[in-house]
Amino acid sequence: MKTAWYAMIVTAAAVASADAQTPASGDTIRLEVGSKHVNGRVYAPHAARVRVRVGEGEGQLTAEWTNELTHGDSAGRAVHRWVTKGTRYTATGSPVTWELRQTYDAVTLAPYAYTATSSTGGHTQLTIDGTRVRGTRRAPGDSVAQTIDMTLDRPGFIASASDLVPLAAGVKEGAVMTAPMWSPNMKASELRVFTVLGKVPVDVEGTRVTAWKINEHRHADGKLLATWYMTEESPYMVYGEVVLPNGQIQRMTEVAIPE
Prior knowledge:
The chain is mainly beta. It has one domain (4-256). The protein has 2 helices and 16 strands. It has helices at 4-9, 164-169; strands spanning 28-30, 46-54, 60-74, 77-89, 95-105, 111-118, 123-129, 132-138, 146-151, 157-158, 176-182, 190-204, 207-218, 224-230, 237-243, 249-256. It has a 16-stranded mixed β-sheet that branches. A hairpin with a 5-residue loop joins strand 2 (46-54) and strand 3. The relative contact order is 0.19.
């Protein structure tokens, strides 16, 4: 799972409109938040550590974090609670620490709550109910928090955890699926296209792992945003390559750790 740090820094075939829960021709599936094709139960409680590198060769370590998933209950609904604690290493060498807590529906992966804090003083706390997003946000250096109350054009999965969606929807070679993504720095959901290229070997911190290779494109312009390597057991996302705004590739490795 990629997380808030990626979100904070930040071709499949064209898709015609159709019922959000009905597969399109061939292997294409159009997903929406609440789609019957998404089954978040594939994700068992676990903990994992992510390291991020940018640059040629081994690259420079720019960030690392831990993810911990627990299962729980909220007002009678089964939920997944993700806790992410990380450190980002700045160009000046001063580390920035942050923590992200997210609550999703245990089956549909619909987001319910999002809270992010940073050692820079930034703080965001949101509740999400379909298209309604409410809460507060305080930028670093601000003394007063800004009230957030917005209505999205359509519900979206959390963009910083987009890698969770394809595996929960079921992967097989050649499958194509679309899904709307949203993050707290976006004013509207953005349609993404996921293409399952097949199972391939990948090196994860010196260990050879066989994983599903999945490309993620932005639907509007076909731009490649990321390539994910997913397995059907913890830590699920074992390797990822994200295209940064400056064109550099951010490489992420993820390994399981004791809970």
